[in-house]
Specification:
The protein is of the alpha+beta class. It is 31% helix and 26% strand. It contains 14 helices and 23 strands. The structure holds uridine-diphosphate-2(N-acetylglucosaminyl) butyric acid (EPU).
Length: 422
């Protein structure tokens, strides 16, 4: 068992570089199933979630070579022939639903268990299943899982309208349609920056995708696609989290290797709340700022990302005044605020989607348990500004999305260690 210990109350300084985006790496791996040829992925984040996804590919028959130091993984999908996803691995990773489409498109069938929900919400897969059916899959359900078969052995292009904007749903249908016969039109698509880069890679490999990054995507099916090289874009959520870390600690830090425009509404909202930031093409510098309360509603890109709601909620505990945080996407992402209250925050939950934060409040070190990736990193930030020692348990949830976070933060002067108890 491992936990983090943080001694708070210290200013930080220096530079921290942003790693490759977990949520981009998690999509390129399943996309490789569409081809028989090798792909070299650079700037790959070796976090727990991406390693689980690589393990699932290996279990299906892919061969991968990893160079953690250089952040490179090379995957040869040529040996994949299995169409049944491992039950245990699927349950460990909600994003495993992304694999269903490419396997179905390439081999005409796929069997998998339901990937399940998680603490941040129910996370249904109805829009995925509706999309597969529209593309010509017949779905049979059995205990806890399903089997899908393409009628006539091959999927057929179709028009799919997403009733609700879904990131992985958009990505899955876009990949799946690459090998379907004829034209697919996806409407009301998500527009997150990870989507156009995935399309760009697939197009370089021979796919015909138009409109990725807008709300309508058109895919003309092709017979096969080749291998290639993919560079994972910088993690916009990590970048935004580090910006809030600089503001929370009132420190001058430089966040490098990021793409500020990928933060969408986050930067303008932070600036309206009083943040003084210097923004370059691939860096952001935070300055000591007097923060004022400002309400937010989370929204799909380019709105305020739900994945940055938790550090922002913490930031509002240090801002002057009252703010309403409206988490519109997930019904389980605000419960961590209970733990901030034990540290001294003043956060009142109106309902699972809304809390009112009154600030500024002094925080004191406490024993916390990380419920999910984003609440977990927020607890680290809370520990950094609290007086005394904070202990955070269940840190697998933090390792799922942030690679060796304690080593990277130590570089800025954070007094933090990972403790392993046998
Ligand atoms: N939804 C449905 N039916 C579906 C699919 C989704 O009702 O079939 C609902 C969800 O319950 C949710 C909403 O649609 O209320 C949006 O979910 P979406 O499908 O967009 O989420 P996701 O694609 O599963 C990705 C990220 C999340 C991020 C969201 C929103 C990955 C692997 N995950 O999830 O990242 O919060 O988009 O931006 O890309 C994280 O990294 O910590 C994380 C949770």
């Amino acid at each position: 068992m491992e936990h983090f210990e943080i001694n708070g109350g210290k200013k930080i300084k220096g530079e921290i570089s942003v790693n490759g985006a977990k949520n981009a790496a998690l999509k390129i791996l399943p996309a490789l199933i569409l081809s028989d040829e090798k792909c070299r992925i650079t700037n790959f984040p070796f976090v727990e979630d991406t390693q689980r996804m690589a393990e699932i590919l290996e279990d299906l028959g892919a061969v991968s070579e990893k160079n953690v130091e250089q952040k490179i993984i090379t995957v040869d999908p040529g040996g994949i022939s299995k169409t049944k996803l491992d039950d245990i691995l699927v349950r460990k990773l909600r994003a495993s639903i992304l694999l269903a489409g490419p396997i179905l498109a390439k081999f005409g069938e796929v069997t998998m268990k339901h990937p399940g929900g998680c603490v941040i919400g129910k996370r249904p897969i109805d829009m995925f299943l509706d999309g597969f059916e529209k593309l010509g899959a017949k779905i049979t359900f059995d205990e806890g899982g399903f089997f899908m078969k393409a009628e006539g052995g091959k999927l057929k292009g179709a028009k799919i309208f997403f009733p609700k904007i879904t990131v992985t749903g958009t990505e899955t249908m876009m990949m799946t349609a690459v090998l379907a016969e004829g034209k697919t039109v996806l409407e009301n698509c998500a527009m997150e920056p990870e989507i156009p880069v995935l399309a760009e890679y697939l197009n370089k490999c021979g796919a015909k995708i138009k409109g990725a990054g807008t709300s309508t995507i058109e895919i003309e099916g092709v017979e096969k696609i080749s291998g290639g090289e993919f560079r994972v874009i910088p993690d916009r959520i990590e970048a935004g989290t580090f910006v809030m870390m600089g503001l929370l600690t009132g420190s001058n830090i430089k966040i490098t290797d990021c793409v500020p425009s990928h933060l969408g509404a986050v930067i303008p909202i932070l600036e309206k709340a009083g943040a003084e930031l210097e923004i370059g093409e691939d860096y952001i510098i935070t300055k000591e700022s007097r923060m004022k309360a400002r309400s937010i509603d989370t929204h799909e890109f380019p709105g305020f990302a739900t994945d940055l709601q938790s550090p922002y909620t913490l930031l509002m505990t240090q801002a002057e005044g009252q703010s309403l945080i409206h988490e519109t996407i997930y019904e389980g992402r605000l419960f961590f605020t209970d733990q901030l209250n034990t540290m001294g925050a003043n956060i009142i939950m109106c309902d699972p989607h809304r809390v009112v934060v009154t600030g500024p409040t002094k925080l004191y070190g406490k024993k916390l348990v990380s419920p999910d990736i984003r609440a977990g990193i927020t607890m680290i930030l809370a520990g950094m500004i609290a007086e005394g020692k904070t202990t955070i348990e269940n840190i697998y949830q933090i390792d799922r999305g942030y690679e060796k976070i304690e080593e990277r933060l130590k570089g800025l002067g954070v007094d933090m260690k990972r403790i392993t108890v046998a």
